[in-house]
Amino acid sequence: MNRWALLCLAICVPVFTAQAEQLEVKKPGLAKLGQKQFLQLLVARNVEIQYGMLGSEITGRLFRAEAGLYEAVFTLGIRDDDRLRQRTADERLQNFATGNTAALDEVVRSNEIGVRSKLPWGGELTLGYKVARRTNNLIPQTSRSGSEYNSSLNLSLKQPLMRNAGRAVTETDLRIAELEHLASNHQLKLQTVKSAIEGLTLYWQLHRAEAVLTLREQAYANTQAMVADTKARIEAGKLPATAVLEAQGILLSRQAEVIRSEHSLREAQGKVATALNLVWTGRAELSTQPIETPLRLDLKMVDISEAEALDMWPPYQIAKIKLQQAQDRMSFARNQMRPALDLFFGYSGTGYDNDSRTAQTIARTVKFPEVNFGVNFELPMRGNQKAEQQFLAQSARVSQSELEIESIKNSFSNDLIVRESDLKQATDVLNSSKEEVTLRQVLLDKELERYRLGVGLLSSLIQKQLDLTEAELRVLDNRIRFEVAHSTWLYAQGRLLSDHQIQIIEPTAIRK
Predict the structure, then answer these.
(1) pTM (2 decimals)?
(2) Is the pLDDT of residue 302 over 80?
């Protein structure tokens, strides 16, 4: 299978996503792309769009990282203490049986296991179990066992009552990360439609270069036929010998135009290949086969209102997300201005025995409970200037976001009117230029008839042919302006991608 066949298989996929992995494209051979296939291929391969996809995936991963806020943490601690020290006089007097032992030689092994978790309202809950085994040179003097065991089952709670209290404060970073991910997805869509508009502009420039080359080649062929006809008329004695010089001069001019058009075509092909992220050597051809948009368009938004179009406008969505982020940060800064008042609560059961199992049983039955309760209060003596300034900064940021939203609304409304006006104007200009071509063709036919009858001048015929070619070039330029204006109008309504069967799938959703 040749390289172009692989490309054909790729671009025949009906729906594209902004996932580069879903499309494998080889270097193209002779590729005739319609604007829909070109745009789908562009979205699948464009480097800037792929870069935006990775940015969306990064923010998605960061959001998932923040979603682990309430994940329980398993703790395990093992500690060995080995001490050799002198015993104090009080220690020796406390127990007559060990009073003659002047030094303490002791080894303590502590094992602790527990679970710690963040609570939605801002507190931290810890549940742990600890076993300590003590062995020294005193225990055998008072007990048959060589070790003592101390077990404890502990439950503790630290709960903020003012600063850092409440679920809204606890989940601030989580909401900020989620909003950042949503903004990144809208940024990806914005980058995609911008790249699509730029790509379509390159596509129509390539189409223009192809059409211009065709027109120049036709003009060159017509001039060649004119030179041959002029030579025949000179031989027949109907024209002076100098007449051929004028025709040959025009022929050289047409030949130069063909060479320049070929260069322009190669340049346009290179730009399209770069946009498609393809290595183009200049030997392979990239050509267009567009389906022209009908000139009779219903420019009224029947199926979508201006408010719905604004709601799909990525800059507007990004601005709303920025406002929500600023409001969340402002709420968090307001909370940080409060004094710190934390509640502490602890409950534990202990067990002590020379046998480890007995000590564990006593601790679990909580025969000897221990309860502690307290509060901790902190208040900056000169005011919390840091939190206050952060609150004022976030308040200003909220005002900025609100101003940006209002500006985007006004700009979008005005831009939508301008885009519709541009499309109507481009339609009228294109219709007028088509009528001009029809008129120029009639004038050329009449001048050609006069020339064949021997009453017309060669210079007049050459001028009429030049006028027709220039009129056809104007039609081509106006057609491209119309197509670009139509694409921009679809872009303003948020329909550019959907009308070309392109759907952006969230990258992180694909790779779950």
Answers:
(1) 0.76
(2) no
